[in-house]
Amino acid sequence: MKIDRLLSIVILLLKKNRIQAKELADLYEVSIRTIYRDIEAISLAGIPVVTYQGANGGIGLMDGYRLDRSVLTDGDVKDIVMGLQSLSSSLGGPNVTRLLDKFESIIPDSGKAKFSVNTTQFIVDHSGWGNQSAQESKLVKVKEALSQSRTIAFTYRNAQGAVTARKVEPHTLVLKGQQWFVYAYCLDKEQFRLFKLSRMSDPVVTESAFTRRDLSYEKLPWNEERLAAVKTVQPFTLQFNHKSRHLAEDWFGVEALTEQEEGMYTVSVPFPEDAWMYGFILSLGPDVIVKEPAHLREKIRDMALRIASNYGESPIENLEKHSI
Question: Do 215 and 184 touch, CB atoms closer than 8 A?
């Protein structure tokens, strides 16, 4: 869009002393004549563009010019930039980078050093450890489908291991618990579902366009659906000792712990009983015990024994035995 190009040119001129018209034409893939028309439009908007003649000539802004930011305090700009930096660590992309450039360009040279210190005192890094190329590729596809309001098709493996082909209308990308999800209307199930990116494979943006459905984000719908499911299940009770107390505090908060005896604590939490919940309990390690209900104690015990048997003298035979 022209307005995007005009704003981008202004930001570029703020960062550089001067630039050739041909460079701008090549950068935005338009003609030099179009660039000069853009410069004229920028001048008419009250931004002092100067054209320099000669061998080192080009297009620039009047010395000392800065975008007016009277509506934003230094603290406002700092908070916005820190939020953008956090978004950049997880979502990335040229749009976020351009936004960072826009805000950093309105800081006077005399204040840039202090601004840099202020915006690096607190960093939220949502990116995972290791190679994230597979997830980044999926994010690109989903963002493309979102921006174009097109359906996306993919193969999905749920927590129980069932594999299905899905076609959905993506509405919202959700970063929750350091994991990316897509909140989308599933055309197969005819209802909204939350899909985990790591369980999606071979996503394809289709040619089918869709109209966004009315959604209220005042109360995040995926949280509401989860809470509704939790209300239908009975809570389970976990026992933590002094070695694992920090895990209880990390996951459930200090106030959720009930001290039973010295060095022993319990936490009662409602969760739908599914594969995720079994894996979560096992991930807490040997210093955490399921106290109630009895059937869950037996389930976790059986799973722990199966895991232990895989590390016996013949793990391959054990795996084959349990898969029969």
Answer: no
The pLDDT of residue 186 is 93
Higher-confidence residue of 44 and 22: namely 22
| Number of C-beta neighbours around residue 13 at 10 A | 23
Range(s) of the domain holding residue 138: 133-229
The predicted model scores a pTM of 0.49
Same domain, 208 and 292: no
Same domain, 170 and 94: no
pLDDT digits (tens, 9 = 90+) for 141-158: 888 898 899 999 999 988
- Is 89 in the same domain as 110? yes
Looking at this protein, which amino acid is placed at residue 91? L
Question: Which strands, in side-by-side order, build the sheet including 18-19?
Answer: 18-19, 58-61, 49-52
In this structure, are residues 288 and 282 in contact, taking their beta carbons and an 8 Å threshold? no
Residue 320: inside a domain, yes or no?
A: no
Round the CA-based radius of gyration of the chain to a whole number and report it: 28
Cβ atoms < 10 Å from Cβ of 200: 22
**Structural contact between residues 132 and 156, judged by C-beta atoms closer than 8 angstroms:** no
Same domain (yes/no): 222, 242: no
Question: By 3-state DSSP, what share of the chain in percent is helix, strand and coil, each rounded to 5?
Answer: 45, 25, 30
Looking at the fold, whether 210 and 292 belong to one and the same domain comes out as: no
